[in-house]
Hints:
alpha/beta; Nucleotidyltransferase, domain 5; five-stranded mixed beta sheet
Amino acid sequence: MLNRLRQWLCPDLAIDLGTANTLVAVHGRGIVIDEPSVVALEKGTRKVLGRGTAVGKLARQMLGRTPDSITVTRPLHNGVITDFELCEAMLRYFIRKATRRSGGLRPRVVIAVPGGITPVERRAVFHSAERAGAGQVYLISESKAAGIGAGLPISEPLASLVCDIGGGTTDVALFSLADVVAARSIRIGGDEMDEAIVEFLKHDYSLRVGIPTAEQIKIEIGSAAPLDQELTAEVRGRDTISGVPRKSIVTSEEIRKALIGPVTAIVNCIKGVIEQCDPELVADLVDQGVVLTGGGALLRGLDLYLTEQLNVPVRVDPDPLTTVARGAAICLDHLAQWRGILDAGDR
């Protein structure tokens, strides 16, 4: 009864603290927040606009369109906190939004983080979450959360391989008997794909565009494998020579070539994990294959391209954008069962 009252007053939270987006799931209610990891500030100060509410979607709308008096920034880069104060402000906003009533209590929080972060970076997450209003804080690697969220049989004596492609990092892990057999994390993800498109347009078309435009091009015509019907898109930007606005038509074949660098890095990361495993586990992958999660998994034809490169079946989770958050929420809802794979810090 007391636990029910506590959950009603101040429900526990699961947070996917991503470079590009932050998702928050509430105990018993599922995902209630899915917003960009962006904060808008008064330039020259550390004051968040709108009395601390210019966070997430509102701040994302300002990106690339602000006057000199406003700065829009991301508190995380490559999956790690680069601005502690702003990360606290962002987390505080999301925690308060998710737990509108608290009764003076502080929620228990499970936070998904990249597997490759350092001990110093892990402590930064603990401290930022605590100062933002969290009580007991647990960390879980994004690959573990993704494996649980995707419904993989990670507790069985069978190889389960998940590749989570986020905005700033790609986490790959192979599980068996509820533990990680081999894992790698690289600081390459959707952001690097967007930057590759920006550089391609600058180099080949003498056209300067912003990251939001590059991301939109990636969504509209980006692909990793040849398409049955290749696509085109109109791109507007600033001519790097004349300095005036201009538009050009780009093709999906061109964007595919621009993305080859980040995509190849992801392939090599998965191969590196497979190479660390015993032959028996590798043999399981012939049937089990690889599951892709994260926003980067939505790149057209990525599953087909990886199948060809790895020679094992590759599938995309039905809802890859929320897989990590769902996995963290499952751990939260069954804390006693999954506590052993969580990091509770030095306490």
